[in-house]
Amino acid sequence: MTPVLLSVLLLSALGSLAGAAAEDPATAKAQEQKPYEGMSLEDLLKVRLAVTSTRGDDILTAPSTVSVIDADTIRRYNLRSVAEALELVPGLDVKRTYFKRNVATARGILQDHYANKVLVLINGVATWHASTGEGAFYRIPIEDVERIEVLRGPASVLYGTNAYSGAVNIVLKRPEARQAQVDLGLAERGGHQVGASAGGVVQGVSVLASARSFDDEGRTFIFTDEKGLKGAVGELERGDLFTLTASGRGHSLLANVFTYDEGFLGTNPVFSSGTGLVHTSEGRLLSYGYTRELGSKGRLTGGAVYDWSQRDFARSADDSQASNVEGYRILGFARSSWTPSPSWGMDLGLDYEYRKSIEYSVYQRSTGVASAQNNMHNRDLTEYSAYAEVSHHRGRFDLRLGSRLTKNELFGGNLSSRAALVFAANEKNSLKLIWGQSYRAPSLFELYFQTPQNTVYGNLDLKPETSDTLELAYVTSFRGLFLQALAYHA
Predict the structure, then answer these.
(1) Residues whose CB is less than 8 angstroms from the CB of residue 454 and which lie 6 or more positions away in sequence, other chains included
(2) CA-to-CA distance for 8 and 92, rounded, in angstroms?
(3) How many CB atoms lie within 10 A of CB 300?
(4) How far is CA 32 from the centre of its chain?
(5) pLDDT tens digits, one per residue of 216-262
(6) If 0-12 CB within 10 Å is exposed, 13-18 middle and 19+ buried, where does residue 224 land?
(7) Whole-prediction pTM
(8) How many CA atoms lie within 13 A of 462 on its CB side?
(9) Which end is more exposed in the chain, N or C (fewer Cβ atoms within 10 Å of the end residue's Cβ)?
(10) How many helices (H) and strands (E) does the chain have?
(11) Would you tell me how many other CB atoms lie within 10 Å of the CB of residue 235?
């Protein structure tokens, strides 16, 4: 496919156009001294980005196509959810299927039921269901968001599998002083939203805790299923969300717990398969990282992540039969970043990931007894990867070369690479030529799932998806406007 995308964004609608902060302390300190709100366009173009690399790039020299939705934009347009904010981003779509709502796709790569080719990150931590691969950006309330960074195009060199066509990084607020907030809202049809957050800086550590609950019954409409039966279906959404972040003195901690209910249209769009009943998602995420600065030219980072997910949904009209989809991921990582001179930089990293499907069962709600395990009980695999990236700056040119070598227990090795050449004509204009590869390993569901009747089944002969993308982008600003024009071939 060879689409051409042209996006023109008003600065007032973008707030902090390049508001993604790099994670290193020097950059964070500089941004604390100069907040985004009220900055000029020229200053905004110099703010460092994080989603495109660990090095921190401004919007003109970033080696990827990236958009940012900042807190000022969220407040100005009264955006009610992360999904609603993402709908503002050109080249990214948030859709619903019969099976799930809030399905994110990028660059026209569509999927049925749910999507596992746009990676969801929270403060840079990748999170997705270990069995089926989809992320859940509805687990974070918009009130806790500082900015949303969206990278469109291949991101496997940076983030590994599932960043096949893009990545969404939700950056949470980080309080600089003591603060507390309570929110209460009422919606149509008796819905409500209530939440509270509190945080501050304690002995050099910034802490924020947030708890929120919402219930939106949505509209009711008459649905005609594939068998011609008609019935009332409600578009409900409700959830309970809790998030805790702490960062400082080199340490970072993230904990997120959520339960989310949505009305769905069945495993198949027929009332006998659960159309009009509830699809429940749950998750538990715990991440810890430690960063040690090595003078002014380098740093080391290491950490671990535990990511558990579960979904439960009806499979019969009377809700007596249901499915439980449960799994978890365990990750370990190590990173190093070196800047031996102002013109040269290097990043190295190692990642380990263990994925396990606990079950994808069909069970009776009254007894809890499973009538089918669908070949998904205790399925697991291990994946290792290593990556390296070199950057070089000379005059008006920036060159970035990187690769990730992935070793998957089932599929062997894969090498994905990317190269970006950026020419910054001046402080307001740049031209980018980007070539990138992507890799996505089949999910455990895609490999193993099999109903007893063989009506739906996975395929052990599947191979990882790969892609090659060539992009040409032009970025400019003038008269208070920011313009990004992009042509790509994938």
Answers:
(1) none
(2) 15
(3) 16
(4) 25
(5) 888 889 999 999 999 999 888 999 999 999 999 999 999 999 999 99
(6) exposed
(7) 0.89
(8) 17
(9) N
(10) 7, 26
(11) 16
